[in-house]
Amino acid sequence: ENIKYEVSEGIGYVTINRPKALNALNMDVLTDLYAAFTEIEADETVKAVIVTGEGKAFVAGADIAQMSQLNALEGREMMIMGHKVMNLIEAVEKPVIAAVNGFALGGGCELAMACDIRIASEKAKFAQPEVGLGIIPGFGGTQRLARLVGKGMAKYMIMTAEMISAAEAYRIGLVEKVAAPEELMDEAVKVAKTIASKAPIAIATAKSAINNGFDMDMKSASKFEIETFTAAFGSEDKTEGMAAFLEKRAPEFKNK
Ligand code: HXC
Q1: Which atom of ligand 1 sits closest to the CA of residue 107?
Q2: What is the pLDDT of residue 29?
Q3: Where does 50-150 have alpha helices with state H?
Q4: Which residue of 60, 80, 174, 193 has the fewest C-beta atoms within 10 A of its own C-beta?
């Protein structure tokens, strides 16, 4: 009910579906998101995932009405659940693209940042407005924003709570592409299909090497790359990919 999930031509579409509350994330939505990504993880037919929001918002944040009723311990539980969801999205061995159709505020911006790639509609707006509510970003935002746009810009956004346009989000590296509103989904599907046409083990390995290596020192990260590279190099799809190049034909990857 809170999430629409469908698979079409190898792409999983996850749509947050609470448009009346601008897709605010309450505990039920977080639980459904976790379930959807658990299913995605196990489904071999899904090669790429697109996350978007129903209506005018991507996600306008964690549910303020629900949070207002929670004490500190209960708020912490909600935060832990949010972290579980974002960490699962980040760890799932498939590319996840956020198609940011509108407001991506607070937990919504954090959800977009947990995805691998962000494509924004020209109408999208981004902010971490939590300090205006007496809290701070709690679904990983203080960490992922600083890693994506740098410490200074993350502090600027989090401390001022300023809402920024898609163009500004693109300028600071918070989104990778901007599309006209009516072209957003086509653009997201195009990127998803491009990635889905590559060797799945290579894509999963690249995601893991980048994500895990980013949190390591350079020496450990280099070592990690060598280990993950070796796994991809031993795959059947490596044999197929290189043979296809040499035989001047398109590869047929088998995810093996
Ligand atoms: C609950 C929300 C909501 C939210 C919007 N709504 N955002 N409900 N939680 N985060 C509800 C409104 O109450 C309203 O319900 C309906 O959605 C439509 O919103 P409006 O405000 O009437 O729309 P508009 O005037 O267009 O303004 C849009 C908006 C504004 C600028 C996005 O709604 C807004 O500022 N929302 C809050 C954004 C925010 O602060 N997000 C961060 C949350 S903290 P009714 O019933 O009146 O129609 C967070 C922390 C994460 O995310 C970590 C926590 C552990």
Answers
A1: 52
A2: 98
A3: 64-67, 72-91, 107-114, 141-149
A4: 80
